Amino acid sequence: MTAAAVGLSHSPLIGKNDPEADVLARVGKAVDGAKAFVRDFDPELVVLYAPDHYNGFFYKEMPPFCLATEAHAVGDFGSQAGPLSVDTDAARALAQGVLDRGVDLTVSARMTVDHGFAQPLEVLFGGIDRVPVVPVFVNGVATPLGPVSRIRALGTAVGEAAAALDRRVLFLASGGLSHDPPVPVLDGAPPRVADALIEGRPPTPEQRAKGEQRVVQAGRDYAAGSTAMIPVNPAWDNRLLDHLENGELAEFDSWTVAGMAREGGGSAHEVRSWIAAFASLAATGPYAMTSRFYEPIPAWIAGFAVATARER
Ligand SMILES: O=C(O)/C=C/c1cccc(O)c1O
Ligand SMILES: [Fe+2]
């Protein structure tokens, strides 16, 4: 088995609320580097760790993580809609392998995903149906959240199970780093919002457009500095990237949910996808980070990072 990893921040505001041209050019160069890395690695299977933003997972049942044997994207914020090219046999094998290793994985035979999954597949592969993929939802938004050590355990178990597949496997992380977008919170929500977060009734096109416009406006406010949201935290983000680069994954076990939210904002928990992906790569052997890009981009409500890594 050969393994590699890519971490890529997502933002639904890309292309809708863009920063200055020089920032865009630097991001474009980093993304082009990641694309070349992926092309060169030529994965036979992508294990994609990503969060959801109340499009697929709701409080009626909210697992800490869940692996899909089939998945379709809703197409929020203009992302691609439709079925993902899930490798169902590989997904079943990984699910069994993770459960055999004592991690209580939930499985979905019809997962609904949003831009968190669609965007990295579109950016790196040109579409959500171009490469065999095993989607793994990692809750990074809906509290309560469990200890980060369990995410590391999930990533390790997936990596060990993937090693048995004897294929070129790319572990791909979508999300984070520090950011505090206006994703709704159940605690204290008015009854109508609480009901939507619990039941997950699909929004009408008008409701979806209104919700998306709210996020676009929040990005404008964030960029203008006139907001109550927790600012992007480059020091915290770079500490995370340092630990990933140095293979110090056990360091994350002492990171607390409250501390992460305080330092990185309500959606900083999306870094769980990164921790899972790098734990998977580490489980296959020693690795080296081969590229690392970071920039705070308030217009996208994102501590925006792109990193690539492969086994030594
Ligand atoms: O409201 C949403 O669905 C998502 C918002 C958002 C904004 C910026 C960065 C992210 O990672 C997000 O999920
Ligand atoms: Fe997100």
UniProtKB/TrEMBL annotation:
The keyword Lipoprotein does not apply. InterPro entries: DHPP/DHXA_dioxygenase, Xdiol_dOase_suB. One of its GO terms (biological process) is 3-phenylpropionate catabolic process. Homotetramer. It comes from Streptomyces caeruleatus. The keyword Coiled coil does not apply. HAMAP family: MhpB (MF_01653). This is 2,3-dihydroxyphenylpropionate/2,3-dihydroxicinnamic acid 1,2-dioxygenase. GO terms for molecular function: 3-carboxyethylcatechol 2,3-dioxygenase activity; ferrous iron binding. Its EC number is 1.13.11.16. It catalyses: 3-(2,3-dihydroxyphenyl)propanoate + O2 = (2Z,4E)-2-hydroxy-6-oxonona-2,4-dienedioate + H(+); (2E)-3-(2,3-dihydroxyphenyl)prop-2-enoate + O2 = (2Z,4E,7E)-2-hydroxy-6-oxonona-2,4,7-trienedioate + H(+). The active site is at H115 (proton donor), H179 (proton acceptor). Catalyzes the non-heme iron(II)-dependent oxidative cleavage of 2,3-dihydroxyphenylpropionic acid and 2,3-dihydroxicinnamic acid into 2-hydroxy-6-ketononadienedioate and 2-hydroxy-6-ketononatrienedioate, respectively. Belongs to the LigB/MhpB extradiol dioxygenase family. The gene is mhpB.
